[in-house]
Amino acid sequence: MASAVTMSGWAYKWPGRLGDSPIIGAGNYCDARIGAAACTGFCELSLRTQLAALCVDFLKHGDHPADAAQHAIELLTRLDVSKEQRIMHIVALRADGEHGAASTRPNTLYAWRDATVDGTPLAPRRYVALTDPGTSA
Fold first, then answer.
1. Is-contact 1 30, C-beta < 8 A?
2. Cα dist. 77→49, 62, 90 in Å?
3. Domain layout of the chain by residue ranges
4. Tens digits of per-residue pLDDT, 95-122?
5. Which of 15, 16, 125, 130 shows the greatest Cβ crowding within 10 Å of its Cβ?
6. How would CATH label the architecture of 28-127?
């Protein structure tokens, strides 16, 4: 089992800015005994929270992958960032092959593949509507 992500970059970024992709635990994380997670979106969110590692920790404690991804994204409400910057998508995979995903954007999909299906099916990500810190959903 492995995890990997790539970064498209951020136009007009600060010189020397490093994204979350090369930071293990932020953009991606894998523990072959438990599972893996990969994040895309506004990478400062995953950098500040070590989001992929948190998602795998939720898997470790028994969450279904979609629940783990949702619970990790919900932690972003603790950050003081604008709503425009609250863009995050996570795909989570448990060591037994069960997968799921969540996103702060509605109607997003993720692709998955294994030996039981032909082609590459698309599945919906669970939508997570983030609230402002200190407010209820």
1. yes
2. 11, 23, 16
3. 28-127
4. 999 999 999 999 999 999 989 999 999 9
5. 125
6. 4-Layer Sandwich (3.60)
